[in-house]
TrEMBL record:
Residues 360-568 form the AB hydrolase-1 domain. This is AB hydrolase-1 domain-containing protein. It holds the Pfam family Abhydrolase_6. Signal peptide: none annotated. It comes from Fusarium xylarioides. The lineage of its organism: Eukaryota, Fungi, Dikarya, Ascomycota, Pezizomycotina.
Amino acid sequence: MRISTHLVNVITGLSAISTGLRIPSVSSGSYHVGLNIKALTDESRWDPYAPIDNPQKRHVLISAFIPIDPQDNSCPHGEVNLPYMPPKTRDVFGRQAEAMGLPSGVFEDLQLNFCRLPDTSRLRGKAQNSGTKLPVVIFSPGRGVSRLMYSTMARSVASHGYVVITVDHAYDASIIEYPDGIVITGVVGEANQTVLETSAKVRSQDIKFIIDQIKDNDTARKHFGISGTGGIFVFGHSIGGDTAVSALLSDDRIQGAINLDGDMLGPVVKTGLDKPLFLIGRPHSREQGPSWNETWNNQRGPGMMLQIDGTTHQSFLDAPLLVSLRDVPEDSKAKVQAALGTIDGRRMASLVIQLTAAILDLKGRGFKTAITTISSTGKTPPDSPNMDDDISNIAKDLAPVVEEAGEEGVVAVMHSAGGFIGSAALKGLTSKARKDAGKTGGVKKIVFVTAGVAPEGFEQGPMEFFDYHDSNGTQSCKDPRNLLYSDFSDEEATRWLPGLQHQADRGWATKVQYCGWRDVPSVYIICEGDKLLPAELQERFAGLAGSEVVRIGAGHMVQLSQTEKVADIIASHVD
């Protein structure tokens, strides 16, 4: 099989602009970001959507968002402002936006700021991030939607240290405008089951082709300026989410997938996956059709299913953020909310980026991860679970992870109240307990992140930082802005505060029966700026557990404010 690539550097085809509305960075990491746009042709495949009288080999147009070494305090080759969309694409999606009730000219004069990248032909075999194999994330857009409608998200995710590649699948987007001026319009047909499954299959083959290119070190270095790749992850929105999952099922090189509010199609619904799968959607997305629940019931690998309040299907584009930059007439706000949801545009962008970055931070480093929750959170008595139920549910989530990990073992990360609840859930699952039972593997280390640690017999009493609501038997943090988000800017704190939920009061009225930290070595991350659990209290917790101590200058929600640093600490203690 012969595969060739035809590549065009967009920086020579797009003129930099000095005036216009610059789109702000949201939830950025420590890396600067550069942009390459490439047109690639797969000589091994004919395009099934090309005109009958003009057969063509399959091609894709991609945007590659390249992290620049954070050791450089500024862009080493200078900065450049580029238009968010080229003119014809902007006009097409501008008309579509107006038809949805969005403000007229929402895409006009928008620009994104990037570091200039050197001409890859001048690198003489050297990569821009020489010696570093960066993890790669490939993104597939919604049906009929341009990859450009996710550029703000892609740029922010790349700033966390990932090469992010967004893809326009030929004849799928409403319009694809190539750097050489060629324009292709979409012809994918009506959205019935057969059409969608065929489209997802063709798209997943596009993803495989892109991986072939970046896995070839010479191609990656010559055309993308990267020296090979670390782990590979795929994600997408709508049918792009299903494309990501289909690619995960068919390509062993992919480590995991995130589906943003897309239906599940094809065999994965019945077969499930052994690899990590994350389903993130709008409210009631799991009730819209059976595919999410059926896939989830058959899922064997780690994963998470999450719904974001106040969202619609279109909330997962850049559109909510872009609209927040404009003045929306009062009589248009109802239409805008119907189209994009009631959630604030900047908060939505921040949530998606932070969730994606948090999922990827360990996945991209080659670790398999699983997320569990405290089941009583957000519940109201008398039907709410209690702490024993929480412990039991966490143990049920953890047991298959321990089995899958085998001899490699599991590192359990516990934050806040998850410290004493999670420790109690380790009974029978530690490496010591498994060895005593003649089994291998088990939980081999605990990482406490500003977490509570309690001895056997401990029963949580009233706490001064909680408000207790006798009317419905719940409790909630008194001053979350200052106690939980003390090291956040007002803007960042405002985005996260609405996501907090109450705790059922009866959820704490249970005594600790088992302490996993007695059987498992631990590391304790002390957050020296924590206003909820002061550093002195954290030191006592660490001393009780006999933990190795690592200190961070951060508040209580350090996993949000310093995600990369927390991931670094966890990774450094996996042995």
